């Protein structure tokens, strides 16, 4: 046994050394091969960049490069990636030449272990089938009512009592981002599976499922950041390191999804159940396919909501005048009353009248979109409206984060948090979706848009009316961790007080 252990240790040492050397060699060869034909200032900047010294986030560095570009488009040859902040290019990619810019195999391979054949990870007929089915379900009045019921219950029974208990200790800070992630995870699990993980209970329990889901999302995103796909593919083949962690996390997600599907099968009468899984089961018999679809909605409905809410309350803490304007609108729409009897929940009809709050949420996501950029892959040679040539197989990225900070797109006040830019005569007026592609646009426009806005408004109404939430370090600029969605590194520490009057 000792000899076998020694052999095993020797093999592991050899393999890790070989993998490291091979990875380094691959990168060096790639760069050496690159130099003769790519000497543009953007790629030189990328190869020699110390962006972290000059910018808080990688997205800020991309914004800087896109601002300097005469067309608002750059070509990072070193990454095989064209990045644009031009609304006309975005419309070309998402609408005019939609079928020439699918997700593409590189993307679906990276997220394949977690999302499988779910709607956010497929193209063609598989995407079209899920799109039509999801559109019918998510667009129905009954589903929206069910979603509002879940969100209102989570706010009333968990979020408000938890924040009220935290408000009693004015000197202690709490991570608001963590609370919003717990809140949105509870909601999306109830909505998707009919499962309540109880992440927002007063004791703030650790959910094994939430941890596994977070781990799988994080490690899947990190695959895209490796120097070459061969690195993570070798690790996956030998089941080592981060790929072993990813496999274990996905197994736990699979196990829970499988058990929930089996329970639903035993219950039968899918049409009488309100959760998304039951609705899909009425039309799909393939359990693996069901798992992929529901896990995709889990990913989209959890992290994007938490990200949007975190940015919203960060900005409200920085702009008390906006908070006061929201309170005035809420009192006007919902009625003014004492704090003891004040209602924390708004109806569908009342939320439709909250034009200023709607503008605040849109302005928040203009500056801090939950998904900071999105990529497609060009199938056939193409030319973008700004004249950029796109060779077949090239990754093409439109950068929502940068677009919100471009003077040529939003004017000289583009860096200001200014909800009024969305209002005309006091009424919310949307912009072109390709100027504001936070919810994508064209055929892939976000199906959960209205549900997401419903959830964010419900939380904003309840928390702004009941609490005064202040960021503990108001001068600190948000720094985002790498991932599929915008997550503030280190969280958002805040102090909470009950609002008086």
From TrEMBL:
UniProt cross-references to Gene3D superfamilies, sorted A to Z: Cytochrome P450 (1.10.630.10)
Stored CDD domains: CYP86A
Chain positions recorded as heme binding sites: 446
Signal peptide extent: none
Keywords: Heme, Iron, Metal-binding, Monooxygenase, Oxidoreductase
Listed GO MF terms: heme binding; iron ion binding; monooxygenase activity; oxidoreductase activity, acting on paired donors, with incorporation or reduction of molecular oxygen
Cofactor(s), by name: heme
PANTHER family assigned: CYTOCHROME P450
Family indicated by similarity: Belongs to the cytochrome P450 family.
Name of this chain's protein: Cytochrome P450
Organism per entry: Prunus persica (Peach)
